[in-house]
Write a structure and sequence with these properties.
Layout lengths: L1 H16 L17 H20 L11 H14 L6 H32 L1 H14 L4 H12 L3 H25 L3 H9 L4 H35 L8 H10 L3 H29 L7
């Protein structure tokens, strides 16, 4: 009788010691991959384009067939456009975007962090940034030409202004979203101001900063067309605008495709950096 009681007790203790795993209910898009959905969407758009072009639902002058655009890629690669090769146009645009993004990131992140940490800095810088940030780049493009001329300086300055605000405001938002409990916990453990910044503030703000950089790069590629309107002879934006004047829609499609590929590559690079530097994002 006593053996039976003892066996029951051991069995109950064993059942209590086993951990119970609780599966959290996901919210929103979650962490499931979406690559297959994106590829299927791209194929559906390409198929719709081919169908509309084949059925002549849109005049051929305005919507070339996909095969004609691919043929134009080969022609541009071998013969170039407007006195420059296709690679020279791409390199000219990449140079402007990379230089402008480097300046915007180098200036925007420190100033954004300073605005999040110091009320004087926020009070001084908030007004000019909020004033020009909603303006479309084309509205202050004439001023860039008057002040800086028609060289590379005005083009890069226009791109810097377009990309600076998203980086700066995202860095500020990253600091302001930092929970005060985390700061107080670090202070109670004896953290000094520099340690608070390097170990708490900067890592906590990094996800928002990288998101702002990704948004800024997208805005930069969108502003490239306006920047290359300034007396350019090289660049993908120049190629698109020049081809549009002659109704060469297949060249326009090629230029749009190149910008889309470059913008996608930049965004993928930022996503990779984000996965390496802030692997905890969305998991806390």
């Amino acid at each position: 009788m006593s053996d039976i009681v003892q066996t029951t007790t051991v069995s109950s203790a064993s059942e209590r010691s086993e951990p119970k795993l609780v599966k959290m209910v996901s919210f929103g898009a979650g962490e499931k991959p979406t690559a297959a959905i994106s590829v299927a969407t791209a194929l559906a758009v390409a198929a719709l384009w081919w169908l509309v072009a084949e059925l002549d639902l849109v005049p051929h002058l305005f919507l070339p067939r996909p095969g004609e655009v691919l043929t134009q890629v080969g022609i541009l690669y071998s013969d170039g456009y407007a006195g420059a090769s296709l690679s020279e146009h791409i390199i000219a645009s990449l140079f402007r975007i990379v230089v402008a993004a480097s300046i915007a990131i180098a200036a925007g992140i420190p100033l954004g962090l300073l605005m999040g940490l110091n009320r004087w800095a926020k009070g001084i810088l908030d007004t000019p940034i909020e004033f020009y940030w909603p303006l479309p780049p084309l509205s202050y493009l004439p001023l860039m030409i008057i002040w800086l001329g028609i060289g590379e300086t005005s083009k890069i300055t226009l791109l810097v202004l377009a990309m600076f605000a998203p980086v700066c405001l995202s860095a500020q938002a990253g600091v302001r979203s930092l929970p005060i409990e985390r700061i107080n916990a670090a202070r109670s453990l004896g953290a000094r101001p520099l340690q608070l910044f390097t170990d708490i503030v900067l890592p906590s703000a990094l996800p928002e900063i990288l998101t702002g950089v990704r948004i800024a790069l997208g805005i930069g590629w969108g502003t490239l067309m306006a920047a290359e309107l300034i007396a350019s002879t090289r660049g993908i934006g120049f190629m698109i605008m020049s081809a549009a004047q002659f109704l060469a829609t297949d060249v326009v499609f090629v230029g749009i495709g190149i910008i889309a590929v470059c913008a996608f590559a930049f965004s993928a690079a930022i996503r990779f950096i984000e996965a390496v530097l802030v692997p905890w994002k969305g998991k806390l």
